[in-house]
Amino acid sequence: MGSTDKAVITGFICRLCSKMNRFVIHIYGEEGSRMKLAEKINTYLPITVNAYDQLPKTACLHCIERLEAHHELMEQFSFARRKLSSNDRQTSISATSTTSSNIDTTAATNSPPPC
Ligand SMILES: [Zn+2]
């Protein structure tokens, strides 16, 4: 078939932004697996990657950076949610004051006497 002039650009197409990039990480490569790229992409992004699909398996560093930042943000949110919901449970437990289970945050069940 017709050979295109630009066929020999050194680089890979990023799966996420579809741009040609010289510095990419293979999603299913050693580093990609360590970073759990496929898992993060499938969790957070509106696309699905699969080791057996026909599309590029590379992602550029810029996209990965943003994916990682997003992951951190999501971790923060879920941490905050867990924290808030456990605080909520502790308050309701201490309000009924039945069982004294391990409450590790010192969230003042004994309120200090008023001055
Ligand atoms: Zn990209």
TrEMBL record:
InterPro entries: Znf_AD. Keywords: Metal-binding, Zinc, Zinc-finger. Residues 86-115 are annotated as: Disordered. Zn(2+) binds at residues 14, 17, 60, 63. One of its GO terms (molecular function) is zinc ion binding. The keyword Zinc-finger applies. It comes from the Eukaryota. Residues 12-87 form the ZAD domain. Residues 91-115 have a biased composition (Low complexity). PANTHER family: BCDNA.LD26519-RELATED (PTHR39942:SF1). This is ZAD domain-containing protein.
